[in-house]
Design goal:
Helix content is 12%, strand content 35%. By secondary structure, it is mainly beta. Strands 2, 3, 5, 6, 8 and 9 form a six-stranded mixed β-sheet that branches. β8 (145-155) and β9 form a beta hairpin.
Length: 235
């Protein structure tokens, strides 16, 4: 390549760099989350309760699709979540039960909707604000018997929503355990069965930790200085 040709290629690359930067920075922020309690289908995949789920076992927070779907997958590529005969664990709950979302990226929220067997049952709003890392909804008046509950997180300023299906049996003898609420400056307590992704925070033995990457079952405070959990001090 001649010197003149090399200089021309270099000049073209330098001119294109600002344009690439503008395009990348214009990408919309992503919001991610899924229902952890009662355990949703993607949560059961992530925790190993149900096997052979494909890629969703590594990213239960990513069931994102355009608003308006009534599918467990939302119409995304995670179609395994739509298979009612997959062997999903059915959770016994009461007619009034707390549903917990764990969010890995917080985005302004239009509302959360809960559908029972395809019919809208209850809606929660958030004033178009950003939600915390853990969101709890007390869903009431659930009909007795076996049902599939579709939980939908509708994002405020995009056309997208996040979807999670929960298989339940509603009766007087059941109940679910919800994550303990944050205390003081501490985030929600670490759970050995929960799945955490990079950036999520937990509290454990009165200390705050931040996950550096995807993890499950690794106790904070035991992974060392270069392990998955970054110690943020007492809380």
């Amino acid at each position: 390549m001649t010197l003149r040709r090399r200089l021309a290629v270099l000049a073209a690359a330098l001119l294109a760099a600002p344009l690439i930067t503008v395009i990348v920075s214009a990408s919309p922020a992503s919001a991610h989350g899924w229902v952890t309690s009662p355990p949703s289908r993607q949560d059961q995949c992530a925790t190993g309760v149900v096997a052979n789920c494909g890629q969703i076992q590594y990213e239960p927070q990513s069931v994102e699709a355009p608003k308006g779907s009534r599918l467990c997958s939302g119409g995304s590529s995670y179609t395994v979540l739509d298979q009612d005969d997959k062997g999903w664990r059915v959770t016994n709950i009461n007619s009034s039960t707390t549903f917990s979302w764990r969010n890995t990226a917080m985005h302004r929220t239009l509302n959360w909707q809960y559908y029972v067997d395809g019919n809208l049952h209850q809606t929660f709003t958030n004033g178009n604000t950003q939600p915390p890392q853990v969101v709890n909804h007390n869903v009431t008046g659930l009909p007795s018997g076996r049902h599939k509950i579709l939980a939908v997180w509708n994002i405020y300023d995009t056309a997208m929503a996040f979807y999670a299906c929960v298989d339940v049996n509603v009766g007087s003898g059941g109940g679910t355990t919800t994550p303990p609420p944050p205390t003081g400056n501490c985030p929600a307590a670490w759970s050995a069965s929960a799945v955490y992704t990079g950036g999520m925070t937990v509290s454990h033995k009165s200390r705050k930790y931040t996950a550096r990457w995807w993890t499950q079952g690794e106790e904070p405070g035991t992974t060392g200085e270069w392990g998955v959990w970054q110690d943020n001090g007492a809380c």
